[in-house]
Amino acid sequence: MNAYLLRICCCGWLTAVSAATWGGDVVVNGAQLAADKQRALEQAYRMPIRPGRYWYDAMSGVWGLEGGPALGQIHPNLNLGPPLRADASKGNTRVFVNGRELHAMDVQALRRCTPVLTGRYWVLANGVGGYEGRPPSFNLAALCSAATGGGKSGMQCDNYGAGQFNCSNSRTGIGVIGEGGGKGAVFVDGKVLMTPN
C-alpha cells in the first residue's frame, strides 16, 4: 500500500490527512461517483480517493465524510453528485453554510477567526460570503488571517473580486490562486502544481 500525507492549508492552519491506495465505491452527496469522474479527480489532484461516503459543497469546494466536519477543500463547481443535503454533516448548530448545517467542529474552527451567529449563510471558495439572499458581508480568508496575527502564521490572502484571489503561506510555500470564472491553480514554492480545470 502506497501511503503518504496530504497537507491542506485552510484559514492559516495546516492539517495533515493520511491517504493510501484503495479500491471500492466512492459516494458523494448520496450518489456513487462515476468511475471516469473519480479517475479525473485522482489525476488532477495526484492522489487516490479512499472509498467512503463523502459530502461536497460545490459552491465553496469544501468536502468531508458524511456525518462529519469539513476535512478539506478542492476546486468548487465540480459536478460530483446531487446537491448538498442540509444534514450531510449531522450538525445541530443552527449554522448553515451553502445549505449544510455545520458540524460543531466546523463552528469551533470558525470561532478561531470570528464570532459565529446562528443563521443561514453562503460562502464562496475564496472565503467571501454573506447571509443567504443578501450581498457579501464578510471575507473568511481575511478574518482568519487577521485572527492569526496578520501573517504570524505565514498565511496571507488577497481578494481582488469577481472570483479572483491569491492565498499563500510563506512558511509552507503552499498557495492557491483563483482566476475567476471557476479557474485556478495550486502552487508550491512559486511553481504551479496543478490546475484542475
- Approximately how much helix is present in the residues? 10-25%
Number of strands: 17
Task: Tell me the β content.
Answer: 35-45%
Q: How would a crystallographer describe the biggest sheet? A: 5 strands, mixed
Low-pLDDT runs of 5+ residues are: 1-23
Rg value: 16 Å
Summarize model confidence as the mean pLDDT.
Answer: 78
Tell me what the structure shows.
The chain is mainly β and 197 residues long. It has a domain at 22-148. 13% of the residues lie in helices and 40% in strands. A 5-stranded mixed beta sheet has the order 4-3-5-6-7, with no helix packed on it. It is globular and about 40 Å long. The model is unreliable at 1-23 (pLDDT under 50).
Question: Topology, please?
Answer:
Blueprint: E1 4-10, E2 13-19, E3 26-28, E4 31-32, H1 35-45, E5 52-56, E6 62-65, E7 70-73, E8 95-97, E9 100-101, H2 104-110, E10 119-123, E11 128-131, E12 138-139, H3 140-147, E13 155-161, E14 164-169, E15 174-180, E16 183-188, E17 191-194
Briefly, what is this?
With 197 residues, the chain is mainly beta.
Descriptive terms for the model:
single chain, 197 residues, five-stranded mixed sheet, 17 strands
